[in-house]
Fold this sequence. Notes:
By secondary structure, this protein is α+β, with helices and mostly antiparallel strands. 38% of the residues lie in helices and 25% in strands. It has 4 helices and 10 strands, in the order ααββββββββββαα. The chain has helices at residues 13-44, 61-94, 211-221, 229-245; strands spanning 101-108, 111-116, 129-132, 134-138, 142-149, 154-158, 163-167, 173-178, 185-191, 203-209. Strand 6 and strand 7 (163-167) form a beta hairpin. Helix 1 runs antiparallel to helix 2 (61-94). The radius of gyration is 27 Å and the shape is elongated. It starts with 12 loop residues before the first helix and ends with a helix. The structure holds copper (II) ion (CU).
Amino acid sequence: MLEKLVPRGSTYAADIDLLFDVITYLVGFWFILVFGFFLYCLFRFRRKAGVKAQYITGETHKQKMAIEVPHYLILGCDVVILIMTFFVWHKVKIDMPTPDEEVRIVAQQWAWSFYHAGQDGILGTEDDIATVNELHIKAGTQYKFHLEATDVMHSFSVPIFRLKQDAIPGRIIYGHFNALDTVIGEWDIQCAEMCGYMHGGMGARLFVETPEQHAEWIAANTPDHLKTASIAATTTQESKEDAKNG
Length: 246
Ligand SMILES: [Cu+2]
């Protein structure tokens, strides 16, 4: 249901959606059943002339079963939801797949700072690319993120990934995502934790790029003196080809 509103953009988005669907259908089924029965009773047992109301104590076996059977059926539904939740929670929050790339995300009132690993693919080196309110990632790449907050609690929410993670001052919280290549383009990032009067304006843009687009973006944002031989060679090659084509 959800993918009709917001596309699924990460490897675990489908699992989260399935969980939402199962909960919606189970709760929806019981909601309709209970309210249907309630309305039926209101109509069927309404006040009639000459009919005295019955006093039911709920002590006979039959009366008890009317409560116990639905009770255990609903408990069974709860267990199904719990087991599914356990597996999805593990996949999204507990497992940490071996990352291909890392990115540091810093939340503050009221902006997001992103530190991309840069051309060497290693976070925390001189060629890191820092941006404000713009996260650039490569589709089909396993990312590990380091999430921090400098002032108050924030929450890193990426609807197409079905990802939401609190950022807490004084802690570095790790998580992961892997964008599908079906969502190449520009998407929303939003703070999902009330963090002050500009909380609603604390949005950022997520750019899901192909490896080529991403390499181009990195090359365009790396100062010349930090470009290593391989990137410098590609750039020279490109300029040679441009010269030829021109
Ligand atoms: Cu915030």
